[in-house]
Amino acid sequence: MIQTDIAILGAGPGGASTALKLSHLGLPCVLIDKADFPRDKVCGDAISGKVTTLLHRLDPAIMARFHGMSIQSDVWGMRFYAPNGKRVEVPFPIKSEAGHAPGYVSKRIDFDQFLIDEVRRRPDIQLHLNKEISSFKRQETGWRLQTADGDFTVNCRLLVVADGAHSRFSRTIAGLEKDTAHHAAALRAYYRNVGDLSERGFIELHFIHDITPGYFWIFPLPDGMANVGLGMRSDILAKKGLNLKETLRWIIEKHPTISERFKDAELIGKVHGFGLPLGSKPRPISGDHYVLVGDAGHLVDPITGEGIGNACYSGFIAAELAEKCVQENDFSAARLQAYDIRVARVLGSEMALSYRLQKLLAYPRVVNFMARVVAGNQRMMQVLSRMYADFDLRLELARPWFWIKMFFTGKR
Ligand SMILES: Cc1cc2nc3c(=O)[nH]c(=O)nc-3n(C[C@H](O)[C@H](O)[C@H](O)COP(=O)(O)OP(=O)(O)OC[C@H]3O[C@@H](n4cnc5c(N)ncnc54)[C@H](O)[C@@H]3O)c2cc1C
């Protein structure tokens, strides 16, 4: 039996970054995952500037090592396609804080393995793979976690729950039920030889009639591969009576312009689907001796579907609070409320803005109008182009005052 102050359930980006941050704070922890890495995770594989900035600020050597690998394609811009076919190209002219590309696309099988390698560099992180936790028992001093065969048991004072979108703890113990108005379903496929990809790794978001506010994406990967997918809010999907797989097939085979680009493309492997618990509805994400990190805490951006950055960010916040809890010997629900408050402060306004935008994007005409306005507004283009890489600007963007100033004075 293992006895520890802090146990982390799940070694995806949320769990791994919590462990790395704890280690840099000088706190040992136990990190558990049911999978044996490398393991796949259905995702768009886009690693935003939020992720790279957080990791770089933790230790510049981490991003230097990542950049030295060949598992990623650099992202230097975005292409938006409005329902009327208008294309708006937004280049990202500035480098990340680490001096490299502002973002990347990297298959999760590789990126998550990279994080596990970083975890293995830290001797104070006790990593246990192939351990599927199936029982959680509340004890006087914290939680007892156990595998079904009872061969692996961990007692901890603080449990960091980072076991993803299907987290059982989150659903059955923390009470975070799936709400289809704040949940998305998405499909991912890997293709080789998609035509007309940007040479500078621009990621593509296509807003198509009948599937807004969801979107179809093409994210270029190394070696002529691309991550291709389609996502939509679950309640709207049900209301429209759409079948995601058939819709994806229709886009690739029949869409008037997109299908042209797939005529020589080859599907590699199968099409896979997974859920995204969106952060558009504020929920309690801590309790007695536990905090919920990343997808387990429903922290995916409601408009972009970006969840890796928020998983890392919430993990860092959890680690910083854990340090205080250990010092004060207080893991009570009341003390851990500070986690909810801090997460709401740094992510809440960003989520609220995304949710408002998501509602607007339900109307194809509005998307067409927005594309026209953005394309004709240099100032807006500059802001959008910096937004992806500039971590601090993203926080500012969530403030209505920022937009009012920009529209009326052209300054920020
Ligand atoms: C189709 C799709 C496209 C997406 N595209 C993007 C994108 O391009 N960019 C982006 O930023 N985000 C994207 N997301 C969201 C992103 O994938 C998630 O937000 C992110 O993986 C959350 O990280 P996490 O660490 O919280 O959870 P996960 O990455 O899901 O990790 C959870 C870990 O917990 C482990 N685990 C689960 N149960 C147990 C158990 N009982 N015992 C032990 N271990 C357990 C799992 O094995 C897993 O390793 C997408 C999601 C989907 C579905």
Automatic annotation (TrEMBL):
Pfam families reported in the protein's UniProt record: FAD_binding_3, GGR_cat
Domain FAD-binding positions: 4-173
Signal peptide location: none
Digeranylgeranylglycerophospholipid reductase catalytic domain residues: 193-263
The organism's place on the tree of life at top rank: Bacteria
Matches recorded under NCBIfam families: GG-red-SF (TIGR02032)
Name of the protein described by the UniProt record: Geranylgeranyl reductase
Lineage: Bacteria, Pseudomonadati, Bacteroidota, Saprospiria, Saprospirales
